[in-house]
Amino acid sequence: MNKLTRLNKLIRLLASAEANSHSWTSRGSNLGLRNPQSPLKVHVNRQTKTHPLTTLTQDTSVAHVSNLGPDDDEKYRELESLLKRNCTRKHFSRAVDAFYEIRVLGFCPPVKTCNKMLECLVRVNNTGLVWRIYGEMVESNVAVDVGTFDCLIQAFCKEGKVKEAYDLLGEVLENDWVPNVVTFTKIIARFSKLGFLTRVSELVHLMIAKGCMPDVATYNSVICGLCKHGRVEEGIRVFVDLKERGYRPDVITYTVLIDGLWKAGKLEFARELWGQMQQNGIRPNLVSYNVLIDGYCKHVNLGHAKELFLEMSDKGIKPRIWAYNTLIAGLCLEKRIDEALSVRSTMLEKGLSGDVVTYNTFILAYCNQGNVQKALEFYWGLLIEGLKPTVSTYTPLISELCKEGKMKTVMRMFKKMLEMGLVPFCCTHDDIVVGHCGQGDTVEAMSAFNRMLEAGLKPSEMTFRVLITSLCGEGKVDDALWVLWKMIEKRYTPVASVWSSLVSHICSQTLNDMEMHFEKVLKVDKY
Predict the structure, then answer these.
(1) What CA–CA distance (Å, rounded) separates 331 from 147?
(2) Are 168 and 136 in contact (CB under 8 A)?
(3) What 3-state DSSP class applies to 140?
(4) List of E strands, 424-466
(5) Which of 1, 167, 218, 428 has a CA-to-CA distance to 384 between 20 and 30 Å?
């Protein structure tokens, strides 16, 4: 099949799919990539030298095309146009297939077209393909430009490789290229999330110095980082400053700051900001309402929380599962489980069955009430829904079952947790040790205790006390003394009842045993 025939065939296929909005069916694996060679895995870093910045030029012409006649060239332009139009979230796989068809024909689209593909792939979080397409560009000697590196820096940010993104940014700037505001904002957002706020400040000043002015999204990232890491007052100063500079804060700005104020306990200021947002004509969105509802729930103002929930629905904002979960959690926290169940019924009426957080909330609430049977009903309901239990599912259940002495059920659950790859909290191990002691099974209690030590966990002081007392009660004074030694190793000071229990049981022994054990007690006391 000659080049012109292949071009015509691909153009008809793309045009047909575009006209009929058919989903693209790729002919190969991984979105139909038809690269005849192994996919290139090109990562930008100094060690592999895969981004020769010193060779960047302003040339944006089509990469070299061999043996193309006038008809071929016309068809290529048509194909390139179709490729560009398919660089969307919905149809990006068509564009990728078209790109590799072009590569098979022996040429590569111009840098602007390639950059458009890279931008699309970054948006859909397919960074693997970003590096492959970039590799093809390098192999084809496409004269990449700053737009290419904008995409690569953003790809690094998407992958959480903020150091690599920062290093590449530095190299781009050294070569007199200035990334766009989106690229700067992506790096700033990553450093903000990690709490590297000095670096955030440095980047904001750097972009201004390079003539790239921050936008509202940039300042939102800065405020978010400050609030997240407990520097809410500085966040407020940035908020005031951006308004004075003529920026108009958006719903994200207000939402981030209100959330920070709630968490810092500045309730009145958060309410004032909520009112100011609406006065300025900015409509709260679903996230805004959820932040405020969560704040009211955590500060025990469920009346306002429920009013906001109803207001949200009245304004046509459809609550999602996590909005319902917030209200349910607040009601359960106040032991108003019947009202929480009513909210859940509303969820079900709306076609929302709930997620693992919904079930965990009710499991915890019923366990806190001592109603383990109802908690187990929600546990089984969770499994029936096909949801995967989490550590937070099992922790309250095991705790309550231990109190009721149902250790066989406890150990089945514990085993299930481990099989699922879940790592129990330290308190769960404590509950199991104490639960076995409550049933007079010091053998299993010691086994669970040893598991804790082997895992590098620190048993609670109560666990030590209960275990020592139980061992003494069964006449296992040597074991009790060994546990006492471990207790002091963990920097606990044994209370009088522990010493009393030990002395009492030592005194009930023969004279020789008494002498031996008292010597051990004295050694422990000196330690």
Answers:
(1) 50
(2) no
(3) coil
(4) none
(5) 428
**190 DSSP 8-state letter:** H
H helix count then E strand count, the chain: 28, 0
Q: Give dist(CA 324, CA 159) in Å, integer.
A: 31
pTM over cut 0.85? no
Start-to-end CA span in the chain (Å): 88
Cα(490)–Cα(426) distance, rounded to whole angstroms?
14
Residue where the block lists tokens 């308004």? 243
**CA torsion through residues 440, 446, 451, 455, sign:** positive
Would the CA dihedral through 401, 403, 407, 410 be positive or negative? positive
CA distances from 322 to 9, 133, 272, 357, 484 (A): 48, 38, 25, 8, 47
H or E element: which one contains 415? helix 407-419
| C-alpha of 130 from chain center | 23
Neighbouring residues of 46: CB distance < 8 A, sequence distance ≥ 6: 167
Cα 58 to Cα 288: distance, rounded to the nearest angstrom: 44
Q: Are 251 and 284 in contact (CB under 8 A)?
A: yes
Sign (positive or negative) of CA dihedral 321, 326, 330, 332: positive
* Cβ atoms 143, 111 nearer than 8 A: yes
Which residue matches tokens 């407020």? 236
d(CA 64, CA 142): 9
Task: State both tokens at 228.
Answer: 């997240």
d(CA 260, CA 227): 5
| Tens-binned pLDDT, residue by residue, of the chain (527 aa) | 555 555 555 555 555 554 444 433 333 323 333 333 322 233 443 333 344 343 343 333 334 444 444 455 565 566 667 666 767 777 777 777 777 777 777 777 788 888 888 988 888 888 888 898 888 888 888 888 899 999 999 999 999 898 999 999 998 898 888 999 999 999 999 999 998 999 999 999 999 999 999 999 999 999 999 999 989 999 999 999 989 989 999 999 999 999 999 888 888 888 899 999 999 999 999 999 989 888 888 887 888 888 888 888 888 888 889 889 999 999 998 899 999 999 999 889 888 888 999 999 999 999 999 999 999 999 999 999 999 999 999 999 999 999 999 999 999 999 999 999 999 999 999 999 999 999 999 999 999 999 999 999 999 999 999 999 899 888 888 888 888 888 888 888 877 777 777 766 655 554 444 445 445 554 555 44
Question: What DSSP line would sit under 260-297, residue for residue?
Answer: HHHHTT-HHHHHHHHHHHHHTTPPP-HHHHHHHHHHHH
Tokens 């944006």 locate to 60
Q: CA-to-CA distance for 484 and 495, rounded, in angstroms?
A: 11
C-beta separation of 176 from 164 below 8 A: no
Q: Which residues contact 20 (CB under 8 A, 6 or more apart)?
A: none
Q: Which two tokens stand for residue 451?
A: 């598991």
